[in-house]
Design brief:
InterPro entries: DUF1731, Epimerase_deHydtase, NAD(P)-bd_dom_sf, SDR39U1. The chain has 12 helices and 12 strands. It has one domain: NAD(P)-binding Rossmann-like Domain (Rossmann fold, 3-Layer(aba) Sandwich). The chain is an alpha/beta fold and 298 residues long.
């Protein structure tokens, strides 16, 4: 199958491209610079341009592009970049797909469990409403920006991803070096729930959505049972054979991270109801399995 991918150089996108190509799929990577190979096509998400030649003949499109939520302090300008990179890019892609004479069968569009906001210790699945705050509002707009694709009859699924356990990037990319140095510890009181997923399960789940016609709308990409930050910290310390005795006070996080600290300290207990109902089998259902999957092979 010919599959187009945006965000193909990111943590999830690059792993997905490798997996698809290893199984013989033709992958077209959308880039914002001038293409340098036959496997690249240009797009300008802010300007609303998507090269239709790159989409031609695609059976599926996976849209993962967007500015990193935790890459910078949340100034007004960076919050606008977080929103615009998702909303404008999704709208541009959805409009381009809707205009094709032969559109793909499926669009898998990135989203996040940040949609639910702070749920405390209350479990939520895909039927839960959006929460309050900046990230939930971004997720609502982000998903709504794909309306043109849905109206054109393209099966559209929103991959609401949790915290991806990987050495190469994301939250865990920062945590692994800290724990190896003996500087890891719970964040705040540690009672907030973390909805996590291993990188290989994330890639497998995206591919499962592509291959499962019954899956559309929101799909939580998280391990079956979220854990508290304290529980995650204890397992990290045990697996890496390092102490975890230096908790990071909430006030310190607020000083360093600003507004983003409230989301780091917030609790999201999201469960992957639709993935499980559709028959998806996790390779790393537990946090220890997910952490060990992220470590180098012995």
């Amino acid at each position: 199958m010919r599959i187009a991918v945006t965000g193909a150089t990111g943590l999830i996108g690059s792993a997905l491209v490798r997996s698809l190509r290893a199984d013989g799929h033709e992958v077209v990577r959308f880039v914002r610079r001038e293409p340098v190979g036959a496997d690249e096509a240009r797009w300008d998400p802010a300007g609303g341009y998507v090269d239709p030649a790159g989409l031609a003949g695609c059976g599926a499109v996976v849209h993962l592009a967007g500015a990193g939520v935790g890459d910078h302090r949340w100034t007004a300008a960076y919050k606008r970049e977080i929103r615009d990179s998702r909303v404008l890019g999704t709208a541009a892609l959805a409009n381009a797909l809707a205009a094709l004479d032969e559109p793909p069968a499926v669009l898998v569009s990135g989203s996040a469990v940040g949609y639910y906001g702070d749920t405390g210790d209350r479990p939520v699945d895909e039927d839960a409403p959006a929460g309050q705050g900046f990230l939930p509002s971004v997720c609502v707009e982000w998903e709504a920006a794909a309306d043109a694709a849905q109206e054109a009859g393209i099966r559209t699924a929103f991959a609401r991803t949790g915290l991806v356990v990987a050495r190469e990037g994301g939250a865990w990319g920062r945590m692994f070096p800290l724990f190896r140095a003996g500087l890891g510890g719970r964040l705040g009181n540690g009672r907030q729930y973390w909805s996590y997923i291993s990188l290989r399960d994330e890639v497998a789940a995206l591919r499962h959505i592509i291959d499962t016609p019954a899956l559309s709308g929101p799909v939580n990409l998280t391990a079956p049972e979220p854990l508290t930050n304290r529980q995650v910290t204890e397992v990290m310390a045990r697996v890496l054979h390092r102490p975890a005795v230096l908790p990071v006070p909430a006030v310190a996080l607020r000083v360093v991270l600003g507004e983003f600290a409230e989301d780091v300290l917030g609790s999201q207990r999201a469960r992957p109801a639709r993935l499980l109902e559709s028959g998806f089998v996790f390779r790393d259902p537990g946090i220890e399995q997910a952490i060990r999957a992220a470590l180098p092979s012995p």
